[in-house]
Structures are given as C-alpha cells and as structure tokens.
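Backbones bend. Our protein:
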Amino acid sequence: MAKKIKDDSCCKGADKDSSCCKVESVISIDERGQIVLPKEVRDKANIRAGDKLAVVSLKKDGNVCCISLIKADDLAEMVRGLLGPVMGDIFQK
C-alpha cells in the first residue's frame, strides 16, 4: 500500500480567494547575469547574507517557463521528507 506523503507546501490551505503565488517585485539582470533581491523580499523570506538558495526551473513544451528560488535548507528538508520513507521501505526489505 502506498504511503500518503505529508503536504508541507507553502500553498497548502490557501483558500480560493487568496493566491499563494504573487509577483513580489520586478528585477533586472545585469551584464554579468547577476540579480539583486530587494530588501523587502529578503526580509519577508527571511533570507540573510550567506544563505544558500537552490534555483529550480519548470519546463513547458521544452522551454523553461518558471524559475523559483528555494532555501537550500528547506529543499533538503523536502527531499528528506519525500525520500526518507521510500528509502526506509527499501532498506527494510
């Protein structure tokens, strides 16, 4: 029997009248490919100097249509949450 995976996504529980995704700001990329996350965004997301962010892309029809930033620590927790039960099942056999 398949185990139910706990949904800890940030959109969980969002009602139909509120959106879990929104445009926080519009930023530019400089000639070296660098961007600046505005202070308001960093503060809201609790991103501090030295934090590591994973760049995650979503493809549609072979083209990247969405790029997300996820704190590396949060991504590691997500992976552990998803793979932990699977790996446990594998090693118990």
